[in-house]
Amino acid sequence: MKIQIEHLDKIYKNGKKALSDVNLEIENGMFGLLGPNGAGKSSLMRILVTLMKPSQGKVNVNGYDLMKNRGEIRKMLGYLPQDFRFFTKLKTWEFLSYAAGLSGIRNKKERMEKVDEWLEKVGLYDVRERNANKLSGGMKRRLGIAQALIGDPQIVVVDEPTTGLDPEERIRFRNILSELSQRDVIIVLSTHIVGDISSVCQDLALLNKGKVEFKGSPEQLINKTKGHVWQVSTSGIEYEMLKSEYAIISTIPSENGWEVQLVGDNINAKNAVEIEPNLEHAYVYFMEYLTNQNRF
Ligand SMILES: Nc1ncnc2c1ncn2[C@@H]1O[C@H](COP(=O)(O)OP(=O)(O)OP(=O)(O)O)[C@@H](O)[C@H]1O
Ligand SMILES: [Mg+2]
Fold first, then answer.
1. What residues are paired with 10 via a beta bridge?
2. How many CB atoms lie under 10 A from the CB of residue 12?
3. Architecture of the domain delimited by 1-76+154-215
4. Atom 30 in ligand 1: which residue has the minimum CA distance?
5. Which residue from 9, 19, 33, 43 has its CB within 8 A of the most atoms of ligand 1, so it is best to mutate?
6. Distance from the alpha carbon of residue 65 to the mean position of ligand 1, in angstroms
7. Number of the ligand 1 atom closest to the C-alpha atom of 44
8. Beta-bridge partners for 230
9. For the stretch 104-121, what's the b/e string if a residue is b when 16 or more beta carbons lie within 10 angstroms of its beta carbon?
10. 147 in helix, strand or coil?
11. Do the Cβ atoms of 88 and 78 come closer than 8 Å?
C-alpha cells in the first residue's frame, strides 16, 4: 500500500488556507500526524477519505487517483472523524452490525461474528444491548474506532482516536493498531498526545499552519533536538526568568526550589545540565522554534 500526496493545497470558501503545498509519502504501517490546533490535520484527513476536495494538488492511493477513482478508494477506507457523532436509536451491537453491512459484509452470520469480535476488542461487549447514543463519551469513541475497523480496511484514517479514552483504553487501542499495522495496511493517525505516536508510529509528519515542517521517524525528530533540552535546579528570580525566556516542559518541586526541564539554546542559568530528549521534548522544541524563529 502506498499513498502519495503532491503539492496539496486547501483553501476554504471563507478564504482560510488550511493546507499549503503538502507533500507526503505514506507507506504500510502507522503514520502519525502531529500538530497544534488548527494545523490542518483534520483537513488533510478529510481529503484523504474523499469527503472533501483539495483546492490543488494530487493524491494517489495504490495507483488510484483520489479525484478520479473515489469509489475504488472508498472501498479501501475505514475512517473515524474527530467529531464522530451519530443520531440513532440503534443498540450498540446493531450500530456495529450496520457499519459492518456498509463495509460490505453481507453474510449475516459472518457479520454477527465480526460484531462480537469487535465488541470484545474495544471493551463494549457488556454494554452491547445499550442504545448507542446512551453510551459514555469514551465508549462512543470506542464504538467509533470499532466501526472504522470492522470492515478490515486497507487504509485506516483515525482523527484524534484517543480523545476521551482513559489510560487503560488508550493502551488497548494502541495494541489493536500495532496488531493491524503488521498487515498490508496503512494507518494514518492524528493526535495531540505525543505519547500516542512515540510508541507505535514508524513515520510522522509535523504540521503547523498548513505546512509540513518535519517528516521522518520519531528518532530523527528526537535527534534534531539533541543539545537543546536542559534540566535546571533553580529557584527564586532565576526560576521566574527561565519561565519567561524558555519553553518549560516540566516543573518538579525540589528541596531548594524547582527541578525544571526546558528547551532552548544558550541557557542562561548556573545549574543547567543537558539531557537526552524524548519525543515530547522534540515536539515542544520544534513548536517553539517555529513560532519564534529568531530566538534560537
Ligand atoms: N469548514 C471550514 N471552513 C473554514 N475554515 C475551516 C473549516 N474547517 C477548518 N477550517 C480552518 O482550517 C484550519 C485547519 O483546521 P483543521 O481542523 O484541519 O485543523 P486541525 O489540525 O485538525 O486542528 P485540531 O487539532 O484543533 O483538530 C483552521 O484554521 C480552521 O479554523
Ligand atoms: Mg482536527
1. 19
2. 12
3. 3-Layer(aba) Sandwich (3.40)
4. 38
5. 43
6. 24
7. 18
8. 262, 274
9. ebeeeeebeebbeebbeb
10. helix
11. no
pTM value is 0.92
For 227, left (φ over 0), alpha (ψ -120 to 50), or beta? left
E strands, 181-290, in order: 186-191, 203-208, 211-216, 229-234, 247-254, 257-263, 272-274
- Return the half-sphere exposure (C-beta side, CA atoms, 13 A cut-off) of residue 44: 35
Provide residues with CB under 6 Å of ligand 1. Answer: 12, 14, 16, 18, 35, 37-43, 82
DSSP 8-state code for residue 63:
T
**Span 146-195, pLDDT tens digits:** 999 999 999 999 999 998 899 999 999 989 998 898 899 999 999 888 88
- The beta strand positions in 147-228, using DSSP E, are 155-159, 186-191, 203-208, 211-216
Smallest-distance ligand from the CA of 17: 1
- Integer Cα distance of 113 and 109 in angstroms: 6
pLDDT tens-place string over residues 94-104: 999 999 999 98
User: Cα separation of 210 and 116, whole Å?
Assistant: 40
SS3 content of the chain, % helix, strand, coil (to 5): 35, 30, 35
Share of the chain above pLDDT 90, in %: 79
C-alpha cell at 47: 481529503
Q: Read off the pLDDT band of 292 (50, 70, 90).
A: confident
What phi and psi values does residue 255 have, to the nearest 5 degrees? -55, -45
Rounded to whole angstroms, the Cα distance separating 158 from 149 reads 10
First to last CA, the chain: 39
C-alpha cell at 114: 465480526
